[in-house]
Amino acid sequence: MQSKLTIRFARENDWDEIEQITSQNFSFQGLADTGSDSLRVLILEFEDQVIGACILQSAKQAQAYLTLLSLGIHPMWRKQGFGTLLLATVKSLVVQESFLGIRMACQEELVSYFEMNDFQLDFLEEGSLGGIQLI
């Protein structure tokens, strides 16, 4: 029997699991203050269990960036390529929806992870998202 791995957009009944996975590096409190036009969440499921989540924000204006607010993988499933799989899906969304690129903020020790996943640091600053902002 083959294992079932799925990436999809979140449904209402996923929020408890999303919050558990992303709580270490993201808080939904104060999100309304960010001027979010559109919040989207990608879910990574393995055999109907949510094991990863990617929280995205997009703006309405044309030629905008997609903002990666959080990328989280359940601790039991880390270091197996699932974060890289979610990032590849985000990159596909950027192309499909004609975004200029991906913006994100991360802790300095995670910069090399994003570089390993073919992200380039075009702009580096302490961002309003917290941590180091990558564009």
TrEMBL record:
Q: What Pfam families does the entry give?
A: Acetyltransf_1
Q: Which SUPFAM superfamilies match?
A: Acyl-CoA N-acyltransferases (Nat) (SSF55729)
Keyword rRNA-binding on this protein? no
Q: Which InterPro entries match?
A: Acyl_CoA_acyltransferase, GNAT_dom
The terms under GO molecular function for this entry are: acyltransferase activity, transferring groups other than amino-acyl groups
List the PROSITE patterns hit by this protein, alphabetically.
GNAT (PS51186)
Tell me which UniProt keywords the record has, alphabetically: Transferase
Superkingdom of the source?
Bacteria
Protein name, per record = N-acetyltransferase
